[in-house]
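Minutes, project check-in
Item: structure for the 165-residue chain
Input as provided by the requester:
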Amino acid sequence: MDSELKAKVDALRARREARGMADPLNRLRAVMAESSAPVILEKRAPFRSAWRVTWERVTPESAEHGDAEARGFVDRDGFRSRLEHKNRDYALTLREALEAVKESSPTRASLSYVEASDSVASGARWITWGFSPDYSTGDSLSLSLHIPETVSGPSRARLVRLLCN
């Protein structure tokens, strides 16, 4: 039985080699030779892609100048770091991103609004949660979930419908 199986495997390998398909690199070369379209070597699943959460704090003083006091990224633990820390990887899964929004939400402020970046839900690139100003400092915080490019329009629309309504 083993010699019969070995003969079948050898025959299959010989046919593949005759067609120039012995290894994945040769298959890629064959596809590229047949088509002028770009070849996507790896396509990640849309909800396993790089979701990111950003934050922005506006103080009464910074609002007078028309800018935010500080802004940055939120990591897996809900820790908010400033934009200067660019050496860290802030790519999250959707579950981690939603947990990060929950963990980094202020405790003394209530949620004022949740809105998408676009009035057409399938075109939304991020969703923002805005919190009421902190009564002791006057600072207001907003958190934004940035949707990866790989997420389709209908999936974006479902996400906006779930999170914004």
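Outcome recorded: The two ends are 63 Å apart (CA to CA).
No further action items on this chain.
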